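Chapter review: from sequence to fold.
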Amino acid sequence: MQHARPRLVITGGSGLLALNWAAHMAQTWDVTLLQNHRQVSVGFAKTQMADLRSERSVARVFERIEPDLVVNTAALSNVDLCQTEPERAFEINAELAGRIAQGAWAVGAGCIQISTDHLSDGKVAFSPETAPASPMNIYAESKLAGEGRVLSAHPDALVLRTNFFGWGPAYRNSFSDTVLRNLRAGWPLHLFEDAYFSPILIEDLVEIAHELIGLKATGIFNVAGRDRVSKLEFGLRLASTFDLDASIAVPSRLQDRDDLAPRPLDLSLDTTKIQSIFSIRLPDLSTGLTRLKRCEADHPVKGLGPFMIPYGRHHIDADDRAAVAEFMNLNGWLTQGPTVEAFERAVAERVGAHYAVAVSSGTAGLHLAALAAGLNAGDTLLTTPTTFVATANAAQYCGANLAFADLDPDTGN
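The token string follows.
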């Protein structure tokens, strides 16, 4: 069926890459983000909650949308979590990838599988696509299995090995987000000086991917930046681009981190194949960082949050931050101390009581209030259903029953 605009479906629709991909292509494609656990509302693309755990569920989604292209960004990319949950890693990174590719093939859609740069043993720089895979961890093993399943299910699929950076949503900072946040806040920033990669800006990755689709490219391609840099050098160059003081950056060594799953020390990718076959010019890091800075003020993904109704919002101003800093600088106090005592005296004076005792949380305070009120097993606590769960839990902790009541529209009680 011919559509007014080509239809693009992106899985992993609440993730960093998917959101950036959708935002960048929304002007020329009809984009649908398939989301699962986290629902995020965006203004630049359609969103749809989708359970893709079976071939049939994938088929139903694709038959309804009729995509021209499917991009699978869904992945369990936390290397250490994959190491402790291998079954989950293979389910998401391999089996799910295969199902999505099969579904795309069934409806005649193109398919792009986003793979990883973790497939080598990291002993040499600029690993080419033809190098024998030597996965060092479960994450790499599962992504390698995913490549095989995708190419088996969809012979014309495009598999991209890459490492990218870009602006992330409020709930999922990218590596570059984290570096910039720490630099601006003056927080300690430990960056590996012995871990190398060749990152590419997401917008550049997306443009190259669609150019490859237009050229009917199939198979495995490295799509990365031209520069091989350490994580430390990346942070320093990011700081320089954004005119930030990088003196807080502390060099550290991946080889010294026995608490982490094994990782290749060199993740840099050789991009000779894509440049020689298709004459695609890969960007250097300086160009990517400059482009990142240029779009900071109005980037559509920055600040995106999950679609939800918050039960409350905190108001924190400069005085609050200064008070916390002053307290922590006072003889190294983190808890207890004279500020707590001053707070107790102020509360007692405000409510006209002889004494007041600060507790660790509002939940603890509600629990104590219920106990002080004599609430016991067999008693009933009357409360509103439009409240935080701790209100109801206070009764549960005392063994009492709960009765929920709606609000009186005239009094609010």
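Two observations follow directly from the output. The mean pLDDT is 92. Residues 86-106 form the longest helix (21 residues).
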